[in-house]
């Protein structure tokens, strides 16, 4: 079953399996409709119809469409973290370079294939065009917790700052790559990887 976002992003946390499944359908419908109509034309009623649930079920979890998009962004981050964790579990012990490749590969895969991800990713583009720093701080926190063990380093402020700088740089260049080409310009993505390797090698080696 698809993961559901943490209870802090919801009006009410689902407890029973049926509620979890209903919330999953709502978020899946929200993601599909974001791709089809965009954020401005998204409505809670349309999500309810697409999910096959009463409108009251949507409002049980979310006060408005912004809260629903935020919950989708939180779910995206949780799914992303799980995918990176699995990649690292299957890895060959290549240190931070292998970990960085796993992070970037999984992000690019979600960017290209996950419904709704191109608009909300981890929350920094809703309203469309807004570049709020908070989601990148959440990503940096997640990477610090996730990769400190790989690096055999304490998850302290210095390591978090390193991942925040890397996240901000990658975020900017990935946006550029997808402005240049609909599926992401591979040359810009390649340059981004080289830039991150140069920065991280100075800090982490």
Characterize the structure shown:
This protein is mostly helical and 205 residues long. It is built from nine helices and no strands. The mean pLDDT is 88.
Largest sheet: none
**Approximately how much helix is present in the residues?**
over 70%
Q: Are there runs of 5+ residues with pLDDT below 50, and where?
A: none
* Distance between the first and last residues' Cα: 39 Å
Discrete helix count: 9
Structural class: mainly alpha
Q: How would you spell out the order of helices and strands?
A: HHHHHHHHH
**Percent of residues in β-strands:** under 5%
Whole-number average pLDDT?
88
Total strand segments: 0
Shape: globular
What does the secondary structure layout of this molecule look like, with pairings?
Layout: H1 17-37, H2 44-51, H3 55-61, H4 65-89, H5 95-113, H6 117-120, H7 134-151, H8 157-180, H9 186-204
Helix pairs in contact: 1-2, 1-4, 2-3, 4-5, 5-9, 7-8, 8-9
Describe this structure in a few short sentences:
The protein is an all-alpha fold. It has 9 helices and no strands. Helix 1 (17-37) packs across helix 2, helix 5 (95-113) packs antiparallel against helix 9 (186-204) and helix 8 (157-180) runs antiparallel to helix 9 (186-204).
